[in-house]
C-alpha cells in the first residue's frame, strides 16, 4: 500500500491529478452477486487498487453489468485517500440501445448509487455506438445530458471514451469535452489514434491511452496466440509480435515492458489505462513501469516496419 500515489501530474480541464498509470476495472466483480461468495475477494482487490501506487481507477456503468462500480463503491465506503479518485462512464441502456439525454442522466444516477457518491469528478460518454453522432449531439441527445450534469455541478469534467477514431474525432471536434480516452489505437501495433491524440492535445484536453497491451496479446506474447483489440490475432500479427519480442530480448527487457513504455513515453498522454484481473498484477505493473528501456530499442523496433494491425476503423 502506498501512502501517496506515484508521479502525479495535473489532468488539464479537470479537478484531478493522475499517475502515469490508471488501473482499468472492466474485469472487476465479474460473476459476483451482492453478498455472494466472490464479492469479498473482489472488494479486497478494489481496496488494493484504491490504495496502491496509482491515483485513478477507471470504471464504467456497464463493466461487469454494474458490478465493477458496485464493488468499487463498497471498497471506497470507508473513504479513499487524498489525491485519489474513481473515474466512470455513462453507458447506453444495454437492453434497448437507447443512449439519449434521459439515459445519460439515469446512467449517472446508477453510477452514483453504486459508488456511494453524489458527484463524479470526471465522467466519460462511453462507446456511443448505438446512436449516430447527429442523434447524440442533437436536442435531448446524450451530449446534452453530459452538459446538463456539468452545468449542474454534478460532474466537474466530461470526456469521450471510445475506440473508433473517426467517430471519436467528431466528438473531440465539438470542443465540448474535457478529456479523451482512446484504446488499442496507440500501441506498438497500431498508431491510428495519433492524429486524434494530437488534436485533443492541441485543444488542451486530458488524454488517457487505454489498453497498451491491446487487451491481451502484448501482455501475453506471440506464443499465447492472444487477441488484439478483443479479436483473434491473424498469423501475420503474431509473427510481427514474435519479432518485437526478439528486439525486446536483445535489449534485455520484455515485450510487456516495451508495450507499456511505448505509451508512457508519449508526452501527450497524461495516463495509460491498464486492465488488471488480480491483486499481484498491481505490483507487477509497477515493476514494468520502473523498468528502464534503452533508447536504442525504439529505433530497432521501428526497423521492423509497421505491424499488420487488425484495427480497421
Ligand atoms: N471504450 C473504453 O472506454 C475502453 C475500452 C477499452 C479499455 N478501456 C479501459 O482500459 C482498461 C485497459 O484495457 P484492457 O484491460 O482491455 O487492455 P490492456 O490493459 O491492454 O490489457 C489487459 C491485460 O493485460 C494483462 N496484464 C496487465 N498487467 C499485466 C502484467 N503486469 N503482467 C502481465 N499481464 C498483465 C492482464 O492480464 P490478466 O488478465 O492475466 O491480469 C489483462 O488481461 C480497461 O480495463 C478499461 O478500464 C476503456
From TrEMBL:
Residues 20-304 form the NADP-dependent oxidoreductase domain. It comes from Lysobacter korlensis. It holds the Pfam family Aldo_ket_red. This is Aldo/keto reductase. CDD domains: AKR_AKR15A-like. It comes from the Bacteria. PANTHER family: GH17980P-RELATED (PTHR42686).
Amino acid at each position: 500500500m502506498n501512502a501517496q500515489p506515484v508521479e502525479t501530474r495535473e489532468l488539464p480541464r479537470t479537478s484531478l491529478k493522475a499517475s502515469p498509470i490508471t488501473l482499468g476495472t472492466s474485469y472487476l466483480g465479474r460473476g459476483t452477486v451482492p453478498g455472494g461468495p466472490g464479492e469479498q475477494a473482489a472488494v479486497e482487490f478494489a481496496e488494493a487498487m484504491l490504495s496502491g501506487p496509482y491515483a485513478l481507477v477507471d470504471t464504467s456503468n456497464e463493466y461487469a453489468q454494474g458490478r465493477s462500480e458496485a464493488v468499487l463503491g463498497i471498497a471506497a465506503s470507508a473513504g479513499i485517500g487524498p489525491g485519489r479518485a474513481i473515474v466512470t462512464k455513462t453507458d447506453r441502456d444495454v437492453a434497448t440501445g437507447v443512449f439519449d439525454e434521459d439515459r445519460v442522466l439515469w446512467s449517472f444516477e446508477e453510477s452514483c448509487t453504486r459508488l456511494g457518491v453524489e458527484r463524479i469528478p470526471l465522467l466519460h460518454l462511453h462507446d456511443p455506438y448505438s446512436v449516430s453522432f447527429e442523434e447524440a449531439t442533437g436536442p435531448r441527445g446524450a451530449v446534452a445530458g453530459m452538459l446538463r450534469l456539468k452545468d449542474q455541478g454534478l460532474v466537474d469534467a466530461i470526456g469521450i471514451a471510445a475506440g473508433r477514431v473517426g467517430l471519436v474525432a467528431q466528438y473531440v471536434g465539438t470542443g465540448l469535452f474535457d478529456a479523451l480516452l482512446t484504446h488499442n489505437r496507440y500501441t506498438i501495433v497500431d498508431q491510428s489514434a495519433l492524429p486524434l491524440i494530437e488534436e485533443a492535445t492541441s485543444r488542451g484536453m486530458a488524454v488517457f491511452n487505454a489498453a497498451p497491451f491491446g487487451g491481451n496479446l502484448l501482455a501475453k506474447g506471440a506464443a499465447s496466440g492472444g487477441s488484439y483489440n478483443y479479436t483473434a490475432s491473424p498469423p501475420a500479427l503474431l509473427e510481427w509480435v514474435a519479432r518485437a519480442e526478439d528486439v525486446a530480448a536483445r535489449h534485455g527487457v520484455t515485450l510487456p515492458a516495451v508495450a507499456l513504455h511505448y505509451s508512457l513515453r508519449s508526452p501527450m498522454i497524461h495516463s495509460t489505462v491498464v486492465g488488471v484481473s488480480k491483486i499481484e498484477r498491481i505490483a507487477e505493473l509497477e515493476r514494468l513501469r520502473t523498468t528502464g528501456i534503452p533508447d536504442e530499442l525504439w529505433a530497432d523496433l521501428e526497423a521492423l516496419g509497421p505491424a499488420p494491425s487488425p484495427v480497421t476503423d
